[in-house]
Amino acid sequence: MERAEKFLKEAGTYYLATADGDQPRVRPFGTVNNFEGKLYIQTGKVKDVSKQIHANPKVEICAFKDGDWIRIACELEADERKEAKEAMLDAYPQLKGMYSADDDNTEVFFMKNATATISSFTKVPEVIKF
Predict the structure, then answer these.
(1) Kind and range of the H or E element at 4?
(2) pLDDT for 96-115, tens place per residue?
(3) Whole-model pTM?
(4) pLDDT score, position 125
């Protein structure tokens, strides 16, 4: 899991794919945080992406850096605890202008049943399950 976290953080931007009925939706994200041994992402409850995750928690994440790419297939599970939200906001203090651990909008999800595959055109793929 640490290798996947490091890759996403170094890439800076990753892309999260969700399902909206039968239509795939992809958008850029930048938050990833290891909290209590689980990998978390963050969004706002008012966003369509949140509604899509709640309707179908199976997502895929993709990022590219230095000629390598990572794809993470996983399920996302919401964690409503204030501590989880605070940990994310502490890791990304620039979000504190838009989000608060006490508001009704901030939402964090952790990855479960995850398979991360790091690939390139020149190396054997590396598979990480967490």
Answers:
(1) helix 2-11
(2) 999 999 999 999 999 999 99
(3) 0.95
(4) 97
CA distances from 73 to 42, 101, 111 (A): 17, 27, 9
The backbone torsions φ and ψ at residue 34, rounded to the nearest 5 degrees and listed phi first, read -90, 115
Distance, in Å, from the CA atom of 18 to the CA atom of 74, rounded to the nearest integer, reads 11
Computed from CA positions of residues 128, 70, 8, 114, in that sequence, does the dihedral angle turn out positive or negative? negative
Report the alpha-carbon distance of residue 11 to residue 64 in Å, rounded.
Answer: 6
Strand partners, 123: none
Q: How many CB atoms lie within 10 A of CB 30?
A: 15
Question: Which distant-in-sequence residues (6+ apart) come within 8 Å of 108 by Cβ?
Answer: 35, 40, 41, 42, 78, 79, 84, 85, 88
- Intra-chain end-to-end CA distance of the chain, in Å: 6
* Residue range 2-129, CATH number: 2.30.110.10
Q: How wide is the angle at C-alpha 61 spanned by C-alphas 25 and 100, nearest 5°?
A: 85
